[in-house]
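Deliverable D4.2, example record:
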Amino acid sequence: MIDRQSLVTRHNPIYTKPVKDAPLSVGNGRFCFTADFTGLQTFFDDYAAPADGFPLCTMAEWGWHSCADAPKDDSLLRLTPFDTQGRPVGYAVDDAGQEELFKALRQNAHKFHLGKIGFELESKSLTQENCRSGKQTLNLWEGLLSSAFTIDGEPVLTETFVHPHEDTLYVRVASPLLAAGKLRVTVSFPYGSHKKSAADFMLPHLHTTTLIEKTASQNITLERVMDGVTYRVIANVTGLSCDVVPGPLPAHTLAFSGTGDTAELAIRFAPLCIPAISITAMDIDNAGSNGMDSNTVLPYPSPFTEARAACTAFWKNYWTSGGAIDLSGSADSRAEELERRIVLSQYLIAIQSRGTLPPAETGLTCNSWYGKFHLEMHYWHSLQFALWDRPEELKKSLGWYKKILPVARKIAASQGYNGARWPKMCDPTGYNTPSSVAVLLIWQQSHPVMLAEFYYRASPSEAFLREYRDIIVESAEFMQSFVHWISPDRCVLDAPYIPAQERHDPRVVLNAAYELEYFRWGLKQADEWLARLGEDHRFSGTAEKLTLPAHKDGVYLAHENCPDTFTALPFYTDHPSMLAMWGILDSDKIDQAMMSATLDKVLAVWDMKTLYGWDFPMMAMTACRLGRYDNAIDLLLLDSPKNTYMPNGHNRMVGDDALPLYLPGNGGLLIAAAMIAAGFGGKTGSSFPKGFTVQTEGLHAYL
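Output generated by the structure prediction step:
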């Protein structure tokens, strides 16, 4: 039996100096707070200032904002026609002559910073010269961030955590500076921004912060209004005072001064009106529904000690349930680092990606692509929940596809296709964001089928089969109508589209390898879903008549019209997605010897610095399925800029200033690790190579 507490706590991040490119976060899966070495966001500007900086944000999955002048829909966009088997189909790929509209639709809606919380000195500026870090520890087992530092030589201790079931931040501060009246805690509210920091503190006239209530027991309620977005901020303090009168809050800042050596602060964030979410009539767990108004009475935060007990109980349960991999005692020198990445990835996914929406690629830490989520990444974020015996966490975001099914039907119908075409990059409404690339991708189309299948395998029931029948069938109906028949016995995956490897002209792509086999898999799986419900097959005939993946000189190509896959730029850059056919998928159309040669070719010629974080686990999955287990471990740990794992556990995209973290890499690592540890394709048990001592619990095998 694995000693799970030892497994987890030996990987607690412990800092003895500021680590600006890897700050630590606490959260509950729907709400996240990222802190500097003070346990708060005291040095927000210092962390956010560099181009490659790692912003310190307070974010919730419901925190979506659009500027007042943002367009309400995309009906005015001029579409570019693409020849599609003799008929034109329009896509929003070109901003020429419509630059402002194109940009505004990309930037709105965006995630926003709910409020910056930090320390200030009463009489002078607080800088990293007079505020010096000591020791900071993230206790993964209890979900608690403990920070020790000094200000002008005086000690300050903080404890920071997030309530597991409320979007509430808790902070305990101990310092003689509090009682002396020298140190205070401030909460400052920015205007929402589409930029990485999600905050703009230079536009105070565009939003309002109003004190609604202040009680004698230091309970404080604020209302924030920003371009149709309304949310409440509800604070409860002990050992702090706040002298403020009802009405607009000057400079959008609330300041708390100490009344003793120790203080406790709880700040709850609750949405009242979030237009980007109300469009889809989505429930907001934190507040009950999106239908509240300014008369709604919201509860104050739970008491500090009660919340702390709830936090530690949640995290103990999280770590003692679900899957686990223990590599302690291994002789292989790679084991310790691999185990560290696995444990920290489980934590980061837990605090960022357990909500009712697919996560953004930077989760709830900061904005990437305006905070919008990319559905082709949903597999990499969330499938691991089923493999690690947490299927209900997968089901939360899977349910969003049911909410946007009418939108996906509209997208398909507008292009002359049947069924539902799932968007690529979007906000909660499900409407595609205009893009030179995103609107032409198709590899997200089978993802709902894959995610639903893995949930069903982990938690089978007829009720679930019926609940997701329409999602499965309409996904397949689109795929079946998208393929092009060139004879009664053969159909192809013809242009226009862009494959996962975003290096190809959508007008000439033919039978992109991964997409071809993923469509085949999705069509067959839809029929298996129908068979479980006692319904007739509808899609397997098309699947069997899809052409085979193209190859040349004994290796698979990116697509049939790309004979220079391995010899000409830009074709041996970006994602080597042909490998996914026998890794992510277990296609029976694949020649394994040829796939092994293709993996060797990729390792020999591919420009590895252009890969993304999920490419490394994807390649490891291919190696694993080929029986090349030692290679699989090497690929998971490959020394490459985009496969960097920081002290906080985040997969950092070194060289890409927009991505100081990249959660698809962490999720992909967990998928590949479970596959290696628990089995795949009917093979059960560990595939770790010699030199590894492996204990596993609660894992499920992969396809």
